[in-house]
Amino acid sequence: MRAKLKRTTFRVTSYSIVDYVLAGVVLVLTLFGVIMVYNTSVIVAFEQFGDKFWFLKNQGVWASIGIATGFIVSNIDYHALKKIAFPALVVTIVLLMFVFLPGFSQEVYGATQRLYIPGIPFIGSISVQPSEIAKLTLVIYLAALFEAKQKIKSPNRIFFGVSGAILLLTALEPDLGNAILIASTALIVYFASGAPLLTLFMVGGIGAFSALLYAFSSDYRRERIFTFLNPLIDPQGVSYQISQIFIALGSGGLLGLGLGASRQKYQYIPEVTTDSIFAVIGEELGFVGAILIIAALCFIVWRGISIAQKAPDEFGRLLAIGITATIASQAIVNLGGMAGLIPLTGVPLPFISYGGTSLTLLLISVGILLNISRQQ
């Protein structure tokens, strides 16, 4: 008797109202981020580049690229990502290694996190951050790996080997913030794939202990931990940044000083366009404005979870979980640092902070979420 083969079909439908709301929230956050990047960067841009619009133009270009690419991705069947999962991962690892080669890297505050690519026709030189690319390509690869784990020999070993290699390269840059995000996202996808809780706790415990040892191996990172334990330990020294962040947030009150009226952005707060931009938002728009930003991010995470729950197959479910975990963990680490709940790690605020690679990859990730939602 011939067995009947059951085929799985996917019905592509138009966007639902909630998908339009998700896209709209992301678009508003992105455009608001472009405005805030300009708002916080005028003096620094003029001093460093002689052009007060320098950061605005760069962020605007990357936002346009990300929105256009995200829209294209949202209309391409996400199952096509399985075919490029392994090649994309290999390219990412190569890019992470290229960062360590002289002439290809761009050092920022003693860390070689950026890959410098000069002489591109019609564009000129650009710099990208491979660790940001790794956050998406690793999620795609792990989703494909665990969907096919019944057909693959030792998928757990592959998981630990691949994740460990990317974490090692990221930590060596050094980029502890992105290493934490990559590790947490990988573990969440691993747990969602059906990993035993005991194994997960053991791996998480070993990872947390390793991260602590790594943090204490550097004077700079050790000072960040001591500053977290006592934010007022040295307001003019190691705790200067967090002290200025608290002043900005406290100055905002309920409704803020008004858009553009921040005082702390005038070179009082370090990294004001990137990981500290939320402090200026709180100062200018107050508690109400800060809550609205947090609510928008929570909505994106909630929608990502809903898409994962209704995904038509295991690959889509794990992919949505990984993307949502990336956005959520990045927001938690950034906002937690601003509130003094965790040490500052230099992680940007999703969709808002200055940074072309991060913004573009986040917008592409949302495009993937929208495509998964369309096929439910």
Task: Describe the fold and architecture.
This protein has a three-stranded antiparallel beta sheet. The chain is globular, with a radius of gyration of 21 Å. It has 376 residues and is mainly alpha-helical. The two termini are 34 Å apart. The longest helix is centred in the first third of the chain and has 33 residues, at 17-49. The protein has one domain. Helix content is 65%, strand content 5%. The protein has twelve helices and three strands. Helix 1 (17-49) runs antiparallel to helix 12 (356-374) and helix 6 (176-192) runs antiparallel to helix 7 (197-216). A hairpin with a 2-residue loop joins strand 1 and strand 2.
Backbone structural class: mainly alpha
Compressed to H and E, one letter per element, the order equals HHHEEEHHHHHHHHH
Spans of 5+ residues with little confidence (pLDDT < 50)? 1-9
Tell me the number of strands. 3
Number of helices: 12
Helix proportion: 55-70%
User: What is the 3D form?
Assistant: globular
Rg, Å, rounded: 21 Å
Q: Report the sheet with the most strands, covering strand number, pairing sense and barrel closure.
A: 3 strands, antiparallel
What count of domains describes the coordinates? 1
**Beta-strand proportion:** 5-15%
Distance between the termini: 34 Å
Q: If strands are numbered along the chain, what order do they take across the biggest sheet? A: 1-2-3
Mean residue pLDDT: 86
